[in-house]
Amino acid sequence: MAQHTSNVQSSWLLSASYDDESKSLVIQTRAGKSYTYSNVPMDIYEGLRDASSPGQYWGQNIKGTYECRTSPAPNVNPS
Question: pTM score, two decimals?
């Protein structure tokens, strides 16, 4: 199993991690939210990692295309 993690240059995204075995992509935002996408091909992770605008790449190639689970920012108390 190989885990890949990259810091990305984006005003919205902080990092992206990819797991070869499960084909899951985890995106961490600067606001502290975590998005986990299922069944993502490795080339999509590589495209995000190498994009000149990772946020735009995410919107065009990942958002709405792959099943997603979100996690709230840590240490946030629901009201």
Answer: 0.84
